[in-house]
Design the sequence.
């Protein structure tokens, strides 16, 4: 939550509006992980410390637990095999795609209920994109993942449900296959078929 930010509408998590003044923003941040469009590893931290930043901030100091969480999170982000011998290197030493998977691992380390991803592959090459998509497809078995993408093919490949929004309005929502193959809205059909956007 950002101070003085204008918020309209509601975001409901387990029946509660997270913007309610009764809701503790710190508690929400523990339940919802975020992966941004541009990878943002903490520049002064190693790969290992990047993954564990949230846990350490919450007071976890048990080295065995931290090691286990680091390995589990990096494996779930499909990055462990590439970095396991370089965990002391800075997170910024990784390629763009690796940095994005590091940020996914960091979000996973605190075991959120929901992971929000804002265009997580927009600046990446096809190989890095494929690895992140593979990670998302695996992760959605255990986590609720909400991804924003302008890439229609990506949405069709990795999502179970699709919402099409236009100018701040929800135009259509449904099973991905139905939205793509039998859209109810003419506007959705035009967007999916590339007539605008």
Sequence:
């Amino acid at each position: 939550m950002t101070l003085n930010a204008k918020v309209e509408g509601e975001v409901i998590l387990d029946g509660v509006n997270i913007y309610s003044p009764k809701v503790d923003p710190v508690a929400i941040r523990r339940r919802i992980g975020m992966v941004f469009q541009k990878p943002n590893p903490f520049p002064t931290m190693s790969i290992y410390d990047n993954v564990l930043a949230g846990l350490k901030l919450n007071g976890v100091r048990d080295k065995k637990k931290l090691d286990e969480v680091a390995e589990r999170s990096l494996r779930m982000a499909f990055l462990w095999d590439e970095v396991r011998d370089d965990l002391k290197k800075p997170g910024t030493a990784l390629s763009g795609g690796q940095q994005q998977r590091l940020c996914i691992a960091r979000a996973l380390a605190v075991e959120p209920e929901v992971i929000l991803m804002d265009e997580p592959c927009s600046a990446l090459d096809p190989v890095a994109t494929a690895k992140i998509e593979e990670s998302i497809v695996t992760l959605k078995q255990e986590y609720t993942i909400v991804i924003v993408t302008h890439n229609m093919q990506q949405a069709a490949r990795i999502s179970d449900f699709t919402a099409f929004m236009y100018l701040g309005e929800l135009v259509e929502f449904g099973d991905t296959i139905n939205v793509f193959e039998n859209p109810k809205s003419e506007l959705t059909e035009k967007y999916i078929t590339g007539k605008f956007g």
Notes: The chain has nine helices and seven strands. The chain has two domains: 12-151, 160-197. The chain has a mean pLDDT of 93.
